Every structure is written in structure tokens, then in C-alpha cells.
Amino acid sequence: MHGFEFSAAPLRPEQLREALADPACGGYATFEGWVRDHNDGRSVRRLEYEAYVELAVKEGARIVAEAERRFGVRHVRCVHRVGSLELGDLAVWVGVSAGHRAEAFAACRYVIDEVKHRVPIWKKEYYVDGDSGWVNCERCAQAGMGDRDHDHGHDHDHDHDHEHGHDHAHAHAHAHAHDHRSPDHPGRDHVHTASAAHPAGLPRPDYSRQLVLPEVGAAGQARIRRARVLVIGAGGLGVPVLGYLAGAGVGVLGIVDGDTLDASNLHRQTGYALADVGRPKALLARDRLRALNPEVDVRAYTERATAANLPALAAGYDLLVDCSDNFATKFLVNDVAVAAGKPAVLASVYQYEGQLQAVRPGGACLRCLWPEATRDGLVGNCAEAGVLGPVPGVLGSLQALETLKLILGLPTLGDDVLLVDLATLETRRLRARRAAGCAGTACTRLATPDAPADLERGVEALARAATDGVVVIDVREPAEIAAVPVPVASLAIPLARLLDEPQRLATDGAYLVVCARGQRSRDAALALRRAGIARAWSVHGGLAALGTLDRATSAR
């Protein structure tokens, strides 16, 4: 037997464990949460649990199914007590059996963490000197706010929770691992740990300013706490998005970014520091968000979003937020969201202007406006076109707001696209009607092939180009070339013209494409490959990799 259930009778671990026995399983782990005799310096006599049973069982069943699917385990069972419990009683039990102990441990931890965050359970602690009143056990219920939904009166200055993840770790948790396939552990591994606790000595995050909003309240905060949001890009747009979502208490935040921090980022990516230059942005953002709000589960993916990895990454999240700086990724995020039936919030920036769109299941998507992805390089990104730091900050803040409105079920942009001109502070809303031919996954282009592995060459290839019989093509604009020329003989063909007329080049020729930082040249080389020119390469990192751009900037 496996699944999620409540029990009014005392829990018998031996009987519960028998239901998970499986000769195919070599790993077995349990979590046991017991009633402790004190809380925050006050002596506890007993406690009571209540639950919205129908909703709670459905949510618990989803959590169990997620654990089975996510960790590949064979059996999962979670039983939670309701009613009156005495000191030392077993309040919650989770058991997992799997092929190996690592999966069993991970799934067990996942289940108890998700149950305490998501399942609607209330409790009342009976102290020697009084009682706590009914308190929402979901971790998002703060400082007496959780009892509003249950209408049991008293406010308190701290959160109480024996098994549902509070500051003081009042659950005794035991994890017992049996792995019959490991010769290093012939018997029982006994690990004593406490339930996930808030870092000692730190105050709890305070959501009181948003809780007083009638559109939020305890119920809205619970929705925020249950939300799982994947943010693609941790740069100028991503920094404010991530900061505001973590500050609001979003339960799980994923960060996908394969870049490292550059000093030129800092005027607009103010969540980082000069000392962080050279480190992966995803890891920097993760550490900052954990310091901002330790209650948020922050997961960093130090890789570039591609058609190969993004669908799998997005599967564990409810909503996607595109904070990338290139069209290919923006259309990819749109396509993954549409295919999965999940909402997405998209934004883009060009100099002083920005664009914001919320893609909802059944509504207009990015391809309803532009059926084919705009080719990267036709419009410069921040590195090429320039940007004042507050511009992506404003658009990222709007993305965070639109994301929270989607989570809370508040009115959003709908099918409109918001255009913002921050030079004049003018805004416009354009209706993006769903295209007649748009029908769910039929509107996506997820099968777009990735670039060949040999598409890029190092900067040293520029010096060898003439000797190797390779023509160097500079795809920058004339003003860029005049300011910083390529240090070798080259043919100047702006990217837009090259993309429109790739046939002007001989298909049997060999071409090395260069630009400022390697993005436009990579797109050009890929377009030439697809046009039948097999020997086309891009200079990885562009002139910036040579230091040419930095020297020119310093001289000005």
C-alpha cells in the first residue's frame, strides 16, 4: 500500500513499514515526527491536528506521485495523524523503498518538505500556561496570520510546528536506511536529524505588508508559498525578478543561466558585487536569494537553456519567466510553456524601450505575433546596443509583478502586449489576438536543431586565417568597425545583409565570422551552415576575447 492518508489512531511504524516491503528494493528510508514536550521555552502538554481532509489528501497524493516520478522510487507512503496527540506520539510517518538508498533518502526528504509546505493542516498546542490557538501548519502561515482562514482568534508572535518546518525544529526526525546491496553497510545506518529548520539566530521572513492586501491574505500567501517558478536568465531582467519573487516567499525558485558575471554587467545587475566577477551567475543568484529568504527553495542550473534541456527542467515548475537576452531563448521559453500548458512571462529590452507579455494556456503566445523567431543579431542586445541600468530593472520588476498576479489569480495583461518607452515614460497596450492556426503544441517549434559542436573556434584562429585560406567576415555595423577594426584583413558584411543574402558567398569557401562578443557571429555562422556552406565558423567570444574592445574603451 502506498500514497497519502490521515489517521485518527496511533501510528504503528512496524505495520507501516511492512506495506513497503519489496524484494526488488535495496534501499529503505523513513521519517518520523514526534510530539515534543516544549516549544520556544514553553512546556507543551499535548496538541491537536485538523485538516481539510479532501483537499489535503489530493495534495498529498500529488506529492507522493511527484516523489515517485522525480526520484524513480518504487513505493512511497505518508501517514499524518489528526485529532488529539500526547507527548511522544508519532505525528507523521513517511516511508520510501527504492532500488538504492540515495533515491530513498532523497524521496523521503522531498515528501516531508513538500507536505509541510503544501498540505492544508492546522494544529493547536496545549501549553502548561495556555494554548496556541489554531495555527496553519503550512510554512507560509506567518505570525498568527494562518488562523484567519480557520477563524480561531488569537495572534501570536511566532510560528508553531512540530513536523511542518518551523524555526525551532520541534520534530525529532529519524531516517533509517537499509541497503542490502552495500557491503559497507551490512546492518542499519542510523541518521538522527531534525526537520528542516530556519537558520538559528535569524529572524523569520516577514510578509505582513503583502498579507494585509485583501487580494493576498493568508490564502494568497499560501498560493505564493506553493508556487514553483523557473526563471531563465539571471541578468538585468532576472535580478529584479528573482529578488522580488524570493522576497514574496515563492516556494521554489529555479535559475537557469550558463553565463559568468562580467564587470560590465554590474551597472544593471545590482544583485552582484565586483568581487563576484568570473563566477557563475546562477550560483551567485542562488546564494543571494538564500540569504534574502532562507525559506525559499532555490535551485541553480548552470547551463544555457536549450531545446534539449529546457522541457525537462520546466517539468518541475508551474510557471516560466523569460529573462534572457536573445530571441532564440525567448521563443524557446514560449514554445516550452505552450507545449506544457503552463503560463510564461516574457520581457525584452532595447536601449530605453521594453516589451512585456504574459502567455497563458489557451491565450495568444509569442508566435501569434511573430510565427518565426526573430533572428538574433538583427536587434542588438545590451552589450551591442547599450542600456541604462534602470531600464531592465523596470521591466524585470513588471515581470515579477505579473508573475505574482498569475500566482494569485489576479487580472493580468491577458492577451495584451505592454510597450514601455522609458525615455518619454509613455506606455501602450497592443492586443495580441490568438492566431487562427494556433492550437496548443501546433504553435511550437521545439524541434529546432542545436548548433553543431564545431561551430566556434578560438580567437587564435583569426591570426591563422590567411595562412589557412579562410576569409574573415566582420558582421558588425560600420560605426562599430570604424571604432574598433578587426586586427586582420577582413570582409565587412553587416549581419542583416549576410542573413538575407547568404548565397553571395561560395558554398565551397571557408569563412571565419567575427563580431564584438561572439553572439552575432555565431548566428551568422549557423545561418551559413544551413545555407550549405559547410566550412563556416564563429570566433568564440568575438573581439572581446582578444581584449580589443576593452583597450578601445579604456582609450576613449
Could you explain the architecture of this structure?
By secondary structure, the protein is an alpha/beta fold. It has three domains: 205 residues, Alpha-Beta Complex (Aldehyde Oxidoreductase, domain 3), CATH 3.90.1170.40; 217 residues, Rossmann fold (3-Layer(aba) Sandwich), CATH 3.40.50; 100 residues, Rhodanese-like domain (Oxidized Rhodanese, domain 1, 3-Layer(aba) Sandwich). Helix 2 runs antiparallel to helix 3.
Summarize the main sheet.
8 strands, mixed
Distance between the termini: 73 Å
Question: Helical region count?
Answer: 18
- Strand tally: 25
State the CATH topology of the largest domain. Answer: Rossmann fold
Characteristic key phrases:
single chain; 556 residues; alpha/beta; Aldehyde Oxidoreductase, domain 3; Rossmann fold; Oxidized Rhodanese, domain 1; 3 domains; eight-stranded mixed β-sheet; six-stranded mixed β-sheet; 18 helices; 31% helix
Outline the secondary-structure elements.
Blueprint: E1 3-7, H1 13-18, E2 27-34, E3 38-39, E4 42-51, H2 53-71, E5 75-81, E6 83-86, E7 90-98, H3 101-118, E8 121-127, E9 130-131, E10 135-136, E11 172-179, E12 189-194, H4 208-211, H5 217-226, E13 228-232, H6 238-248, E14 252-256, H7 281-292, E15 297-301, H8 310-314, E16 319-322, H9 327-340, E17 344-350, E18 353-359, H10 366-369, H11 382-385, H12 390-408, E19 416-421, E20 426-431, E21 456-457, H13 460-468, E22 471-474, H14 478-483, E23 491-492, H15 495-500, E24 510-514, H16 519-530, E25 535-539, H17 542-546, H18 548-555
Parallel strand pairs: 1-5, 13-14, 13-16, 14-15, 16-17, 21-25, 22-23, 22-24, 24-25
Antiparallel strand pairs: 2-7, 2-11, 3-4, 4-6, 4-8, 5-7, 8-9, 8-10, 11-12, 17-18, 18-19, 19-20
Helix pairs in contact: 2-3, 6-7, 6-12
